[in-house]
Design a protein that fits this description.
Keywords (chain A): Membrane, Transmembrane, Transmembrane helix
Order of helices and strands of chain B: HHHHHHH
Keywords (chain B): Membrane, Transmembrane, Transmembrane helix
Number of domains of chain A: 2
Largest sheet of chain A: none
Number of strands of chain A: 0
Helix content of chain A: over 70%
Protein name (chain A): ABC transporter permease
Strand content of chain A: under 5%
Shape of chain A: flat
Order of helices and strands of chain A: HHHHHHHHH
InterPro entries (chain B): ABC_thiamin-permease_prd
Number of strands of chain B: 0
Pfam family, one (chain B): ABC_cobalt
Largest interface: A-B, 73 and 67 residues
Structural class of chain B: mainly alpha
Oligomer: heterodimer
Strand content of chain B: under 5%
Helix content of chain B: over 70%
């Protein structure tokens, strides 16, 4: 295939940072740290040349959620309402940008293959997911078809009606069978070693960096307790 | 159908993975339809209500995978797959997606585990909805700051959450399972 020539960190490292810091954010109560996380992630995204327009749109889409969180603590909070409001309002953005450093800088395919190489994610999952993601457009199309065919019979499927899900399950059963057979006939064998044509370098210092960031966050969040 | 295939009751076949991933993507499409309604409420101080009202829909992929595949771990992995699809293809929550997917799947999984993975019907689903309600509520206590809300709101939210999870991840999943059995797809 091709050698990855990205500027940024390895996808596995980004995933580790995302989960390691993300999990701690839920328990830290600090506006300052949320803002620091946001700024570092933004700087990294710009460094990786993610289009600023894309970032602005993403930030705007999340604005209602952040405002909703913020506002709900002003209305229903107990104790230091303003502090809570800013913590949970900024937390929405901290999570969003933390996810973006992975999903906006690395292709889905690279993320999954990197995880299989460096994090021992089972290849059955990796290639199964990859195969299914290629169906995205067809699945959207099929979803519309399911609804049109219901309308032809004078019905409308709503998300709380089991019949909608039955149609989905039938489609998923057929397609998964077809796709799995197609993959086996193309030489995909489950549980056997594969020939690799994909290089995904992961220098040791990147593991050190991930560990350092996670420990630094832990220390800052639970020992320093900034505002 | 792979669901009842004894040989593969333990391991995960390529087909199981693709099956759940396709269902996960369908859920992603359904979530997009729902998210408009969610956004309208979530932009106001009523956001916690929006969270708890719609929570059942976000988590039903897990128990659905559980009752269809009927094996230990199917619920958790089903929900994680749906969350991964959601994060990679439709994301608006970023990193929180995968972590909450894990928490939600875990809650449902605990319910089925309580029956020793023997009951995938009413009892298993009932316990699974209780597990999910409790575990996700504890998670939101920290993650969404529920510890800072006053007690009246908290009780209301807990009830709304249980109704939402109970209907979507309990009753609706049970109906779907009955329909699947009726069509004989499991043969």
């Amino acid at each position: 295939m091709r050698k990855t020539a990205r500027k940024g960190l390895n996808a596995t490292i980004l995933t580790v940072i995302m989960l390691g810091v993300g999990l701690q954010i839920a328990f830290s109560r600090s506006v300052t740290l949320n803002i620091i996380v946001m700024l570092i992630c933004l700087a990294y995204l710009l460094y990786c040349r993610v289009a600023p327009q894309k970032l602005i749109i993403m930030l705007l889409i999340a604005l209602p959620l952040a405002v909703g969180s913020w506002w709900s603590f002003i209305m229903f909070g107990v104790g230091d309402r303003w502090h809570s409001a800013w913590i949970y309002g900024s937390r929405v953005y901290a999570y969003l940008l933390l996810g973006a450093i992975l999903t906006l800088t690395v292709q889905v395919k690279e993320i999954l293959i990197s995880l299989s190489l460096h994090a021992k994610l089972s290849e059955t999952f990796v290639y199964g997911l990859l195969a299914s993601f290629n169906l995205l457009q067809r699945i959207r199309q099929q979803f519309k078809l399911i609804q049109y065919s219901a309308q032809m019979r004078g019905k409308n499927y709503r998300p709380w009606q089991p019949a909608l899900y039955l149609r989905i399950i039938i489609v998923a059963l057929h397609w998964s069978e077809d796709l799995a057979e197609a993959m086996s006939s193309q030489g995909f064998s489950e549980g056997y070693p594969r020939t690799r044509t994909f290089e995904d370098p992961l220098p040791h210092w990147q593991w050190g960096l991930a560990l350092g960031i996670i420990i630094l966050y832990f220390w800052a969040a639970f020992f320093i307790h900034p505002w | 159908m792979q669901t009842m295939n004894q040989k593969q009751k333990r391991g995960w076949s390529l087909r199981d993975v693709i099956f759940l991933a396709i269902i996960g993507i369908f859920f992603g499409v359904i979530y997009q339809v729902w998210s408009y309604a969610y956004y309208v409420i979530a932009a106001t101080p009523l956001k916690p209500y929006a969270n708890d009202l719609t929570l059942g829909v976000w988590i039903m992929a897990g128990p659905l995978a559980g009752v269809l595949l009927q094996k230990a771990g199917a619920t958790l992995i089903g929900e994680l797959l749906a969350a991964a699809v959601e994060m990679l293809l439709f994301s608006s929550w970023g990193a929180a997606n995968l972590i909450s997917g894990f928490i939600q799947g875990l809650g449902n999984e605990i319910g089925f585990a309580c029956t020793g993975y023997r009951n995938w019907s009413k009892l298993g689903l009932f316990l699974s909805t209780i597990g999910a309600t409790i575990i996700t509520f504890i998670w939101d206590w920290f993650q969404s700051g529920y510890s800072e809300y006053h007690i009246g709101l908290l009780l209301t939210l807990l009830i709304i959450r249980f109704i939402s999870i109970g209907f979507f991840a309990g009753v609706l999943v049970y109906w779907i399972k009955k329909l699947v059995l009726k069509t004989g797809l499991n043969k």
